[in-house]
Amino acid sequence: MKWTQKLLDEAFARRAAGLMCWLCRLVMAFALFCLVLSVLGRQTFTLHTAEATFERAIMAEQDHAAHSGALTVHTSDDVYVHAADGQPGPAVRVGLVLLYAADALPMLAAYWLLSRVFGRVAGGQIFTAANARSLLYYGLLQLAVALLIPWVKMAVCALASLAGQGELSLSTGSQMLNAFIPSIAFLVAAYIIHYGIHLQDEVDHTL
Questions:
Q1: How, if at all, do strands 44-48 and 78-82 pair?
Q2: Cβ–Cβ under 8 Å, residues 149 and 106
Q3: What is the C-alpha to C-alpha distance for residues 100 and 152, in angstroms, rounded to an integer?
Q4: Residue 132 — φ and ψ, nearest 5°?
Q5: For residue 21, how far is the Cα from the chain centroid?
Q6: Span 51-80, mean pLDDT?
Q7: What confidence score (pLDDT) does residue 161 get?
Q8: Residue 147 has pLDDT above 70, yes or no
Q9: Residue 5: which pLDDT band, with cuts at 50, 70 and 90?
Q10: Edge to edge, what strands does the sheet with 44-48 contain?
């Protein structure tokens, strides 16, 4: 079990935390880039028209049968657009961007919180109130993603369908447990760190 002991070594853990901090920042930069692609119309979805169905239609392109091969993004859910003439209206276009933002913005916030924790651990700050708060906020954020974001997405689809040309719908909720279970784990981790800080304060005051 020597290799497992190495994983618990402070020097190794701090170096790994520093690496993870930079990886979190890299993921954040990539998520921002993908959000820009969505705003520019490089988002794929399933388009149903009067003549045909296009599995990977791209909002920014007129010919949905031809794939340009350029960079595109897709939401975590299957998104469907029904437009008889093949061209969804502005409200549906805005709805597509909002659906992608509903995934991207919480992810950005989550990785920012984790980067803060990893940065502190790399600097030797482990049992701190700031780490407990960051883990608590991360857990609450993931809980909101699991329980609230699917409802937000359905509301976006309903409003976009009512407001403009075309109908926007999606299949969502299948990933709820993937966010719900880790959110509870991070809430427990936040409590453990908070409890450890409280015990340390008691020992310091006793001494």
A1: parallel
A2: yes
A3: 12
A4: -60, -40
A5: 17
A6: 79
A7: 87
A8: yes
A9: low
A10: 53-58, 44-48, 78-82, 167-171
